[in-house]
User: Fold this.
Amino acid sequence: MPRADRFLSIRRDPFSDELLARGGDPEAHSLLQRTGFVPVVRAHEMYHRAPANLAQSEEDRLATKAVARLRSARYHVECEAAFDTDDRPTHYLPLGASVAHLAESIREATTTEEVADALTELTATHDGILAALDDVLVSLPRRVP
Assistant:
């Protein structure tokens, strides 16, 4: 039996016609945000909504993309027929999950060699995390006064 937090719904609110996504766990919330949904946090609930001022066609595209990404990550998504899709894009773990895994490896390490192996993932000159971060920062546009 799947866990309850693996279920989501993406629908238009019948009263406001606002596109809403409800349910899911932190990974699902992350996928929704990466797709373009905006988190809404209230005292007793959390859900996501489409950004304001999108045309309905753009909202439909956003919802369809979210359904595809969530299902690709093995979430059960109930949605309106207009958002239903058989598309399943490749699901990659975000870089933050890789960094968190390294931290866990370091905490669980029992030898200096195990710690060094984990740190090498951070510092590898060609494809380490710091090299990738450097690429991101270098690619930012420079502001000229």
